[in-house]
Design a protein that fits this description.
Length: 347
C-alpha cells in the first residue's frame, strides 16, 4: 500500500520518511515535533506515514496521580526489551539481565503525557527524569508531551505521535496518561489494551472512580501492593466487576505489583498477552480497532471543524461576540448557528 503514496511525495519528504523508517532518532524527533506543534506539512507527513502503521501494539496506562505509572512503564520497558516477541514474555526474558540485543529485541516507544507548566506551557518532564536510565538504549524512544489544556488525560496530538512511532517501526508503544482522575478516559480511544493502576491506602477511591476509568480497564493493577489495604482494593474491584459484564466476554484480571522493586511486572506482561490471545480467539481484534477508530474519527472531525472556525474568526471578532453575549445583546445559541451557517456557505 505504501508504494501508492511515494509517487506523490516530494523528495525531501520521501527522504525524511526513509530516515525515520530506518531508525534515525533525529528524523523521528523532528517528525514528532512537527505533528505535535502542527508545523507546516504536518498533515501531509501523517498521510504519508499512515500506510506504514498498524503493526505496533499500543498499551495505555492510566490511574490516579501517585499510583506509580511511570515506574511501572519503566519496568515493563525493561522487561520487553529483553524479549524478541512483543506478544509474549518468556521465562528467559524475565530472568535475563544486562543489556538487550537492540537488533533482535522488541523496540519500545513511550509517550508520557505530563501536566502543563503554568509558567512555560511546556511539560514538567517528571516522567523523563524517572526513565533516564533508558536514554542510552536506542531501542527505547521516550517522548514527554504537555497536556496544553487538553482534558481526558491526553494531549491533543498524542494519537498523532503514536502514529509516527508506529510508522517508525516500534513494536510496542506505551502511553502513560497524566493522571487526572475519573474523567481520564481518552486513552481508551487510542490503546489496544488499557491498564488501570490503583494503589492501596487511597480511601474510597475505587468507589469514587467507578463511573470513570474503572469501566475502561482491560487489566487492573494494584501497585504498591506490599502496603496495607491491597486485599481490600482487590475485593472492591471484584465487587464492582460482579455488577457489570463486558460484551467481549473478558473479565479483567487483577495483577499485584511493586513496581519500584520490579515485582509483578512479568505477571502483568503475561496478562497483556492473555488479553491479546482472547481478542484473537474471539475474532474481536478488528471490531476493537474499528470501535476505537469510530471514536477517533469523531474527535478528528471535531478538531478539524474547530480549527476551521478559528481560522474564519479573528480574535477581535471573538472578543466582540463575547462582549455582546455578556451584555445580553445577543444570545449565544443564535450566534453559534450564524457562525456555523457562514462556515457552511464558504465550504
Amino acid at each position: 500500500m505504501a508504494l501508492l503514496y511515494t509517487g506523490s511525495l516530494n523528495r525531501d519528504l520521501q527522504a525524511w520518511i526513509s530516515s525515520l523508517r530506518t531508525g534515525d532518532a533525529r528524523a523521528l524527533a523532528r517528525a514528532i515535533s512537527t505533528v505535535e506543534n502542527r508545523a507546516p506539512g504536518w498533515s501531509d507527513l501523517l498521510k504519508a506515514l499512515f500506510p506504514y502503521t498498524g503493526h505496533a501494539r499500543v498499551i495505555g496506562l492510566t490511574g490516579s496521580p501517585g499510583a506509580g505509572k511511570s515506574t511501572l512503564v519503566d519496568q515493563l520497558a525493561r522487561l520487553y526489551r529483553r524479549t524478541k516477541n512483543p506478544h509474549s514474555v518468556s521465562q528467559d526474558a524475565r530472568d535475563k539481565g544486562g543489556a538487550p540485543d537492540s537488533h533482535e529485541s522488541v523496540t519500545v516507544g513511550i509517550i508520557a503525557v505530563d501536566p502543563t507548566s503554568p509558567y512555560t506551557g511546556g511539560a514538567i518532564l517528571g516522567d523523563r527524569i524517572r526513565m533516564q536510565d533508558h536514554f542510552s538504549d536506542p531501542g527505547i524512544y521516550i517522548r514527554s508531551m504537555a497536556t496544553r489544556g487538553s482534558l481526558g488525560g491526553l494531549a491533543r496530538a498524542t494519537a498523532d505521535v503514536a502514529t509516527v512511532l508506529d510508522a517508525s517501526g516500534r513494536d510496542l508503544i506505551m502511553i502513560e496518561t497524566v493522571g487526572v482522575g475519573q474523567d481520564e478516559i481518552d486513552v481508551v480511544r487510542l490503546a489496544d489494551i488499557t491498564i488501570v493502576i490503583l494503589v492501596p491506602g487511597m480511601g474510597d477511591d475505587v468507589q469514587s472512580i467507578k463511573a470513570g476509568i474503572m469501566e475502561i480497564a482491560d487489566i487492573f493493577v494494584i501497585n504498591k501492593s506490599d502496603r496495607e489495604g491491597a486485599e481490600r482494593v482487590e475485593r472492591e474491584i471484584r465487587a464492582l466487576q460482579s455488577l457489570a459484564t463486558r460484551n467481549d466476554r473478558w473479565t479483567p484480571p487483577i495483577i499485584k505489583t511493586v513496581a519500584s522493586e520490579g515485582k509483578g511486572t512479568a505477571e502483568l506482561a503475561a496478562a497483556i498477552a492473555q488479553y491479546e490471545a482472547h481478542l484473537l480467539k474471539e475474532n474481536l481484534v478488528l471490531r476493537h480497532k474499528a470501535h476505537n477508530w469510530e471514536q477517533r474519527l469523531v474527535e478528528m472531525l471535531r478538531d478539524a471543524m474547530l480549527d476551521k472556525a478559528h481560522q474564519q474568526l479573528s480574535d477581535g471578532n471573538v472578543a466582540r461576540y463575547a462582549a455582546e453575549v455578556a451584555e445580553h445583546k445577543r444570545d449565544p445559541y443564535a450566534l453559534v448557528e450564524e457562525i456555523v451557517g457562514k462556515l457552511d456557505k464558504k465550504t
